[in-house]
Amino acid sequence: MQNVCKRSKSAIFSPKRGATLMIPGGQDPLQQSFTETLPTEMSMRIFSELDVRSLCRASLTCRHWNDIIEGSDQLWRSHCLSVLAICRREVDGDRFAGCSWKVTLVRNYRKGCVKRRWLKGRYSNIRSADDIPSNSMCPLDVETWGEILEAELDR
């Protein structure tokens, strides 16, 4: 059974009978990304559900996804605001300097993760500098190290 869409004049075949959707221009629908068929706003809504690591990986998938993800400062904003709770001074400084949300996030994400781990007491059992894992150190300001020291003394 064939239906014709009056708006786009494309033929639509019923998948129940083994046929496929015909797209104007002859492109195979199975080779299209959802970002090519949905409005950009919908694609951004889908990408906004990803965590930072997944968002970065998605931006490497194809040029179209990269264009959408890299071109949307709003996608990075919410993730950056979660880092803001940990690295307020650094995030505020970067935003004041005119950095985009993505640049601000990239510059402060690792700091936020390191600070969060220290504050949670993940490294409380370390006895010497040699025992500190390499991924647990990064440049932090004096106030941050003061917070970490206070948390350790409270434990």
Automatic annotation (TrEMBL):
The keyword Protease does not apply. InterPro entries: F-box-like_dom_sf, F-box_dom. One of its GO terms (biological process) is SCF-dependent proteasomal ubiquitin-dependent protein catabolic process. Residues 32-79 form the F-box domain. Pathway: Protein modification; protein ubiquitination. It comes from the Eukaryota. Keywords: Ubl conjugation pathway. It holds the Pfam family F-box-like. The keyword RNA-binding does not apply. Signal peptide: none annotated. GO terms for cellular component: cytoplasm; SCF ubiquitin ligase complex. PANTHER family: F-BOX ONLY PROTEIN 48 (PTHR12874:SF9), F-BOX ONLY PROTEIN 48-RELATED (PTHR12874). This is F-box only protein 48-like. The gene is LOC107684254.
